[in-house]
């Protein structure tokens, strides 16, 4: 979440949206690895995402930026994704959040991921393989 808030602040936005969440996830080494396995890369996704985002006029004044309702739904979906698995007490991880963005599917973040041929099912399958290789 820290990376998502940083992304929002860098763009002078006063909220954290799905696009900020995705920008934050793109900093995660495991997400970068997953994207490479699925035929794209974090830098290309980041460039495409930043190309559609508009910078705000002035820096955010709020100390803590609020989550838009869509991001709350993405977090809820990520928890649903993680529920069948025992993750040492962790409710959801970066992979689950990425699936949550794709399942919600109405954001620019989801559209960019789809443009790169990513689907929720492909992310589920590949993240499962990556998780198993870490055990």
Provide key terms for this protein:
135 residues, Double Clp-N motif, mainly alpha
Quick overview:
The chain has 135 residues and is mainly alpha-helical. The chain has helices at 2-10, 18-25, 29-37, 42-52, 69-82, 94-104, 108-115, 120-134.
Report on the structure:
The protein starts with a helix and ends with a helix. The model has no long low-confidence stretch (mean pLDDT 92). The protein contains eight helices and no strands. It has a single domain (2-134), classed as Clp, N-terminal domain (Double Clp-N motif). α1 (2-10) crosses α2 (18-25). The longest helix has 15 residues, at 120-134. With 135 residues, the chain is mainly alpha-helical.
Gross CATH architecture: Orthogonal Bundle
Morphology call: globular
Count of distinct structural domains: 1
Structural class by sheet pairing and helices: mainly alpha
Mind summarizing the main beta sheet? none
The average pLDDT score comes to 92
Q: Percent of residues in beta strands?
A: under 5%
Helicity level: 55-70%
Q: First CA to last CA: what distance?
A: 25 Å
Full CATH superfamily name = Clp, N-terminal domain
The SSE order reads HHHHHHHH
Q: How do the strands and helices of this protein lay out in sequence?
A:
Blueprint: H1 2-10, H2 18-25, H3 29-37, H4 42-52, H5 69-82, H6 94-104, H7 108-115, H8 120-134
Helix pairs in contact: 1-2, 4-7, 5-6, 6-7, 6-8
